[in-house]
From TrEMBL:
HAMAP family: MurG. Its EC number is 2.4.1.227. It catalyses: di-trans,octa-cis-undecaprenyl diphospho-N-acetyl-alpha-D-muramoyl-L-alanyl-D-glutamyl-meso-2,6-diaminopimeloyl-D-alanyl-D-alanine + UDP-N-acetyl-alpha-D-glucosamine = di-trans,octa-cis-undecaprenyl diphospho-[N-acetyl-alpha-D-glucosaminyl-(1->4)]-N-acetyl-alpha-D-muramoyl-L-alanyl-D-glutamyl-meso-2,6-diaminopimeloyl-D-alanyl-D-alanine + UDP + H(+). It comes from Effusibacillus consociatus. This is UDP-N-acetylglucosamine--N-acetylmuramyl-(pentapeptide) pyrophosphoryl-undecaprenol N-acetylglucosamine transferase. Residues 3-141 form the Glycosyltransferase family 28 N-terminal domain. It is an enzyme of class 2 (transferase). It holds the Pfam family Glyco_tran_28_C. It is a peripheral membrane protein. Residues 192-355 form the Glycosyl transferase family 28 C-terminal domain. The keyword Cell membrane applies. Cell wall formation. Catalyzes the transfer of a GlcNAc subunit on undecaprenyl-pyrophosphoryl-MurNAc-pentapeptide (lipid intermediate I) to form undecaprenyl-pyrophosphoryl-MurNAc-(pentapeptide)GlcNAc (lipid intermediate II). It is found in: Cell membrane.
Length: 370
């Protein structure tokens, strides 16, 4: 079996695409070719994975008419030709697209050549590329039930498969959880709250967290591990040390955690942004979340993710514009001090998770090929 996998621009598209590629390589002994762009993150990430990698020239469409718009259409034309040439040479049995503008020319040329196409939407609110491709794709996988309504015009094609990243969390063992907590010096008997500010950090989340540390230091109900992001780490640690806070008060800091799944699996409450991958992980684990969606992402899709979780009783959304130290601390405390509410939120979170996502995607693709 030969499979073209495509997707790019952000890790939220690339890592799930690689998870799918790896699954098919293992289960079907498939030959994988990944198509991306030279300028996207995939040009660095994918070659490290060991999969064959080819590039096409294409860029995202700007919202306003300008010289860049003309260049975009020129690149799209070039990308279509390049994608067609690659498909003709590789002769795949199926094309799998995981989001990002690079998918459009590949999926379109696959359709022109009669190659079955599966596209996967990671967020609750579908991106422009997947919405545009929904009519020509043969099957559409979605990560969350909340995304189905946006594909009502092609509902017969839609499969609620889950996010591929969710399948990774089921591999975490209790021993993995214990080891990572011991590594960070955490108390194995206390409830744990994890604040994640993102790989590069988010100043509003950092400011709110720093502002509530006095309250955290005074209480004994939970410990806090604060992942600041590399950029802000030194400044945050300096401010914490100036206040005299540290592990003795149940306050721990890390710039970044590369293997975060064992830590998440041992978390009672997560405070974070509301990216699709994060949501897939925490719902597969059944973790209640306090979500502060980034207002700076395309189509404001993080707010749609967070609002859906809040409406389902699996989390609480705080808009960045409303975020204060007092509000963040009070929200955490109200959950910690109400075990029944926290347990119900865990139950609802787990009910939304789909840890068998990769198996579901595999089945959907194989059914398509039949």
């Amino acid at each position: 079996m030969k499979i073209v996998v495509t997707g790019g621009g952000t890790g939220g598209h690339i890592y799930p695409a690689l998870a799918i590629a790896g699954y098919f390589a293992d289960v079907e002994n498939a030959e994988i070719l990944y198509i991306g762009t030279e300028r996207g993150l995939e040009s660095d990430i994918v070659p490290r994975s060991g999969f064959a990698f080819r590039t096409i020239e294409v860029s995202g469409l700007k919202r306003s008419l300008s010289l860049d718009t003309v260049k975009t259409f020129w690149r799209l034309g070039k990308g279509l030709v390049q994608a067609g040439r690659i498909l003709k040479e590789f002769q795949p049995d199926v094309v799998i697209g995981c989001g990002g503008y690079v998918v459009a020319p590949v999926a379109f040329m696959a359709k022109m050549r009669g190659i079955p196409t599966y596209i996967h939407e990671m967020d609750v609110l579908p991106g422009l590329t997947n919405r545009s491709l929904s009519r020509i794709a043969d099957r559409i996988g979605v990560s969350f039930e909340g995304a189905v309504k946006y594909f009502s015009h092609v509902k017969d094609k839609v499969v609620v498969a889950g996010n591929p990243r969710a399948s990774e969390v089921v591999k975490v063992s209790p021993d993995d959880i214990r080891k990572v907590k011991q590594e960070f010096g955490l108390d194995l008997t206390k409830k744990t709250v994890v604040v994640v500010s993102g790989s590069r950090g988010a100043k509003p989340i950092n400011d709110a967290t720093l502002g509530m540390l006095e309250s955290v230091a005074k209480q004994k109900n939970f410990q806090l591990i604060y992942i600041t992001g590399q950029i802000h780490y030194n400044d945050v640690v300096r401010q914490i040390q100036e206040k005299g806070y540290g592990p003795q008060q149940g306050i721990f800091t890390q710039p970044f955690v590369y293997n975060i799944l064992p830590l998440l699996a041992g978390t009672d409450i997560l405070v974070s942004r509301a990216g699709a991958t994060t949501i897939a992980e925490v719902t597969a684990l059944g973790i209640p979340g306090i979500y502060i969606p980034s207002p700076y992402v395309t189509n404001n899709h993080q707010e749609h993710n967070a609002r859906w979780l809040a409406d389902e009783g699996a989390g609480i959304m705080i808009k960045e514009s409303d975020l204060t130290p007092d509000l963040l601390y009070d929200t955490i405390s109200s959950l910690i001090e109400s075990p029944s509410k926290l347990q119900e939120m865990k139950k609802r979170s787990r009910g939304l998770g789909i840890p068998e996502a990769l198996s579901n995607i595999h089945q959907a693709v194989m059914d398509l090929l039949k």
